[in-house]
Design a protein that fits this description.
The chain has about 140 residues and is an alpha+beta fold. The chain contains three helices and seven strands. The protein has one domain.
């Protein structure tokens, strides 16, 4: 399995919790009924930005993207939460918030939601933005 080994803290990050599998139906009289079709949320997104990193480090993100075949395969994990090196990924965030984010994606596995975006900002220096998604799949 592909590995995204993050050796530094991101300069910024954002998280959007996943969606619960809920369907809603409204009767002709206007009564709404909701039904839950699962026990876990899916589709949580984590966007990480690594500003002003060496190009040889930026290359690691493209290599990881290629290894996942464009997000088809999951990222290998050493923490059980779908991402390797979560301590660095959440550096500077309170332990309570980190715990909530990881527990809200419990049972899901991480892969790329989109290809890494790389912006060259100076000779041999780039800024990389990656978007990861926590998915529940039957495979």
């Amino acid at each position: 399995m592909p590995v995204l080994s993050i050796q530094r803290s991101p300069t910024s990050r954002s998280f959007r919790a996943g969606d619960w599998p809920i369907t809603t139906a409204t009767s002709q009289s206007g009564v709404r009924t909701k039904r839950l079709f699962g026990s876990l949320a899916s589709g949580g997104k984590l966007i990480l930005t690594y500003a002003n990193i060496p190009d040889n480090t930026a290359d690691d993100f493209i290599n990881s993207w290629q290894q996942t075949k464009g997000g088809l395969d999951y990222l290998e994990t050493s923490t059980g939460n779908g991402i390797q090196s979560t301590d660095l990924m959440f550096s500077g965030m309170s332990s309570e918030l980190k715990t909530e984010i990881l527990s809200s994606t419990s049972g899901a596995r991480w892969t790329y939601a989109a290809a890494p975006q790389i912006e060259s900002v100076a000779p041999n220096i780039s800024t990389v933005k990656i978007e990861l998604i926590a998915e529940l799949r039957s495979d």
